[in-house]
C-alpha cells in the first residue's frame, strides 16, 4: 500500500480510494486490455485470458466437474466491476471458462458480487452464499441456487428475491461484513456459518444459525475473535488426526460433522485473511458443538505472527472437500508485485496458486500442503542430478532442460552443523525480517543453500529459494526457509520483499531437507520439507525469460552440503480457460 500514492501520481490524476482493501483506480476500471502481454503469463497456474482476478470463490465438486469461481473484473486489469467468473475442470489441471456465474442484477448485489462459499446440502444440491453490495453500499449476504440441477456445468444461478438473507444489523459495521464460509450442520439439525467482520481493531468471525438455509439468526457470541483488525475470507474446517479410523491425510467434509463419531476424531482449523497485513493466519483447535465455540490450542500463537499457509504472496484462500479423492483442497490468490501501469500494459493481473492438498501433520502441530497429485501429469522431459557435493561458496547450473516452466524437486544433506550461526531469540517471531537481513548474498555458516532460478546466464538476474540453519543451543537448531527476489529483475518499481518462514524439522536428527519449487514464468511457488513451509512469490525477469531462464544450485555458507538428489521436469501447458466450443 505504501507505493500507492506514487503509482497514482505516475498515472496522473486517478482518484485514489481504498475499497475492501483494494486500491481503486476509477479511471482504469473499465479500460479493456487491447493486447495481452504473453511473456510472463503463467503456463500451468490458473489464469483467465485477460484482466484482473482476485479471490477464489465457492470451489466445489459437482457431478463429475470441479468448479472454481473467482472474483473478476470483466472490463479491466485493475480491481473493479467485480463478478464471479466461472470455470470447470475434470482434473484441476485443464480448465474451461464458462459464462459468469454470479453478477450484479438485483438490488441486493447491484454494486458488486463479492466473495463467498459453496455448501452441498444433504440432498446433493449446491448452494452459494456470497456478499452483495446493495444500493446503500452495505455489505449483505445472499444465497444463490442452480437453475438446473441436471446441468453438471451449473451455468445458471438463481438469486431468490428474499435476499439478502443476512443483514448487517445489531451493531455490525455494514462496511466490514463479508465473505461467508461454507456452512456446516450441527447435531441439533441447525446450519451454521460465519461471516468476517470487525469492531474497531477486533476481527470477528460472526456466527449465524439456520434451520432452513433461509432464515439466519445471529448467535449471541462469535465463533472466535482477535485483535488483528478486519477478518476477511474466514475458512473453518475439520481435519483428521493421526491414529483415528481414517488416514490423517484424508479430508473431512464439514457435512460429516453431523456424525458424532466423526466429530470426535477431528481437530478444527480456523483461517482468517488479515486485511491489516494482507497475509493469512491459521490456528488449530477444538470446536465445542454444543456451545458453538472454537478454541485454538494453546500451543498456537493466535495473532498476526502465528502459523501461515504460505509465507509469501497468497491471500483470500478457500478450501473445499473433494469427494472423489477424499481430500481437502486449498485454493489461494496471488496478486502481482509489479506496478499498476505494468498491469495495464500487460492487460492482466492476478493468478491462483496451484491447488494444494491440505491436511494435519502427523504430530498435529501444523498443516501440511502439497500440490495436488494431478499436476504430475504435466511433467515432461526431465533431468537428474544425484550425490553431488556443493562446497561452501560453490554453485553450478542444472542444464539439459528448460526451467522457465518446470517442477523441481531437490533434497540436500547437511553433514556438519558445527558452523551454524547463533540464533537470536528475538528473531523467533520475524522470519521475514531475518531473511531480509541475512539474505541469499550474505554468507553464512550452514547455508544459505538452495536454488537460484529464473536466472540469467550471467546470474545478474536471479531469484533465490534457500535454507539457512541456525543454532539455538548445543542440541537444538532452527531452519529458516527464504525466498529472496531482490535480484529477480532490474525494474526498480517492482515490489520485491524477501519472504520467509521457519521450518519445523529437527535438522540435527534428519540431516536432510527437501525442497520442491514450481516455476512458472513469473511464479515461484515453493514447498519446504514436504510441505511444512510454503512460499509463493511473483517475479518479473527481463533477461531470464523463455529459454534464457536457468536453474542453478548454490551454497553460500561455509559448510559443505550435498545435493543428494535433484529431479527437474519441464511442465506441459494445459488448456487454460478456453471457452467451451472454441
Ligand atoms: C438442464 O440441463 C440438462 C443437462 O445439461 C439439459 O439436458 C436440459 O435441457 C436442461 N434443462 C433446461 C430447462 O434448460
Ligand atoms: C466501519 O468499517 C469501515 C471500513 O473498514 C471503517 O472505515 C469505519 O470507520 C467503520 N465504522 C465504524 C463505526 O467503526
Ligand atoms: C532419473 O532418476 C530416476 C529415479 O532414479 C530414474 O527412474 C530416471 O530414469 C532417471 N532419469 C534420467 C534421465 O536419468
Ligand atoms: C535447547 O533448546 C531446546 C528447544 O528450545 C530445549 O528443549 C533444550 O532443553 C535446550 N537444551 C539446552 C542444553 O539448553
Ligand atoms: C499484493 O501487492 C503488493 C504490492 O503492491 C501489496 O503490497 C500487497 O499488499 C498485495 N497483497 C494483497 C493480498 O492484496
Count of spatially separate domains: 2
**CATH fourth-tier homologous superfamily of the largest domain:** Glycosyl hydrolase domain, family 43
CATH topology of the largest domain: Tachylectin-2, Chain A
Taken from the alpha-carbon principal axes, the silhouette is: globular
CATH secondary-structure class of the largest domain: Mainly Beta
Give me the secondary-structure category. Answer: mainly beta
Which second-level CATH architecture of the largest domain applies? 5 Propeller
Radius of gyration: 23 Å
The percentage of residues in β strands lies in 35-45%
Number of strands: 40
Biggest sheet overview? 7 strands, mixed
The whole-number mean of residue pLDDT values reads 93
Helix content: under 10%
Which runs of at least 5 residues are low in confidence (pLDDT < 50)? 1-19
Amino acid at each position: 500500500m505504501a507505493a500507492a500514492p506514487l503509482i497514482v501520481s505516475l498515472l496522473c490524476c486517478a482518484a485514489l480510494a481504498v475499497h475492501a482493501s483494494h486500491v481503486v483506480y476509477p479511471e482504469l476500471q473499465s479500460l479493456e486490455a487491447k493486447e495481452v502481454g504473453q511473456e510472463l503469463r503463467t503456463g500451468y497456474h490458473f489464469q483467465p485470458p485477460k484482466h484482473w482476478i482476485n479471490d477464489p470463490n465457492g470451489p466445489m465438486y459437482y457431478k463429475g466437474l470441479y468448479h472454481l469461481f473467482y472474483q473478476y473484473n470483466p472490463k479491466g486489469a485493475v480491481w473493479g466491476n467485480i463478478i464471479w467468473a466461472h470455470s470447470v475442470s475434470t482434473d484441476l489441471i485443464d480448465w474451461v471458462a464458462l459464462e459468469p456465474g454470479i453478477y450484479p442484477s438485483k438490488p441486493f448485489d447491484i454494486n458488486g458480487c463479492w466473495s463467498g462459499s459453496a455448501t452441498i446440502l444433504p440432498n446433493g444440491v449446491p448452494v452459494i452464499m456470497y456478499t452483495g453490495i446493495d444500493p446503500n453500499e452495505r455489505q449483505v449476504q445472499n444465497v444463490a441456487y442452480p437453475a438446473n440441477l441436471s446441468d453438471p456445468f451449473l451455468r445458471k444461478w438463481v438469486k431468490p428475491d428474499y435476499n439478502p438473507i443476512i443483514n448487517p444489523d445489531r451493531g455490525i459495521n455494514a462496511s466490514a461484513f463479508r465473505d461467508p464460509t461454507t456452512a456446516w450442520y450441527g447435531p441439533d439439525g441447525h446450519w451454521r456459518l460465519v461471516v468476517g467482520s470487525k469492531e474497531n481493531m477486533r476481527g470477528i468471525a460472526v456466527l449465524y444459525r439456520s434451520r432452513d438455509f433461509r432464515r439466519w439468526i445471529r448467535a449471541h457470541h462469535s465463533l472466535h475473535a482477535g485483535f488483528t483488525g478486519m477478518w476477511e475470507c474466514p475458512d473453518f474446517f475439520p481435519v483428521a488426526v493421526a491414529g483415528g479410523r481414517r488416514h490423517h491425510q484424508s479430508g473431512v467434509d464439514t457435512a460429516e460433522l453431523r456424525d458424532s463419531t466423526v466429530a470426535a476424531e477431528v481437530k478444527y482449523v480456523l483461517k482468517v485473511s488479515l486485511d491489516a497485513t494482507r497475509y493469512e493466519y491459521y490456528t488449530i483447535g477444538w470446536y465445542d458443538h454444543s456451545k458453538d465455540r472454537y478454541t485454538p490450542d494453546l500451543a498456537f500463537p493466535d495473532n498476526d505472527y502465528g502459523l501461515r499457509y504460505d509465507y509469501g504472496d497468497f491471500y483470500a484462500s478457500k478450501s473445499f472437500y473433494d469427494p472423489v479423492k477424499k481430500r481437502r483442497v486449498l485454493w489461494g490468490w496471488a496478486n502481482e508485485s509489479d506496478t499498476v501501469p505494468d498491469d495495464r500494459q500487460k492487460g492482466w493481473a492476478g493468478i491462483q496458486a496451484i491447488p494444494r492438498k491440505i491436511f494435519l501433520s502427523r504430530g498435529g502441530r501444523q498443516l501440511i500442503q502439497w500440490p495436488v497429485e494431478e499436476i504430475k501429469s504435466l511433467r515432461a522431459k526431465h533431468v537428474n542430478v544425484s550425490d553431488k557435493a556443493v562446497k561452501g561458496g560453490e554453485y553450478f547450473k542444472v542444464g539439459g532442460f528448460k526451467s522457465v516452466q518446470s517442477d523441481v524437486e531437490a533434497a540436500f544433506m547437511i553433514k556438519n552443523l558445527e558452523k551454524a550461526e547463533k540464533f537470536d531469540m528475538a528473531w523467533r517471531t520475524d522470519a521475514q525480517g531475518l531473511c531480509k537481513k541475512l539474505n541469499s548474498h550474505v554468507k553464512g555458516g550452514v547455508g544459505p543453500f538452495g536454488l537460484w532460478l529464473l536466472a540469467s546466464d550471467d546470474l545478474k538476474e536471479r531469484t533465490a529459494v534457500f535454507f539457512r540453519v541456525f543454532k539455538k543451543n548445543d542440541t537444538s537448531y532452527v531452519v529458516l526457509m527464504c525466498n529472496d527476489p531482490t535480484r529477480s529483475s532490474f525494474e526498480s518499481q517492482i515490489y520485491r520483499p524477501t519472504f520467509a518462514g521457519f521450518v519445523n524439522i529437527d535438522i540435527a536428527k534428519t540431516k536432510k531437507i527437501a525442497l520442491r519449487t514450481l516455476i512458472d514464468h513469473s511464479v515461484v511457488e515453493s514447498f519446504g520439507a514436504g510441505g511444512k513451509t510454503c512460499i509463493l512469490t511473483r517475479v518479473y525477469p527481463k533477461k531470464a525469460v523463455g529459454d534464457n531462464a536457468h536453474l542453478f544450485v548454490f551454497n553460500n555458507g561455509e559448510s559443505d552440503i550435498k545435493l543428494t538428489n535433484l529431479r527437474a521436469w519441464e511442465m506441459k501447458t494445459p488448456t487454460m480457460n478456453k471457452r467451451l466450443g472454441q
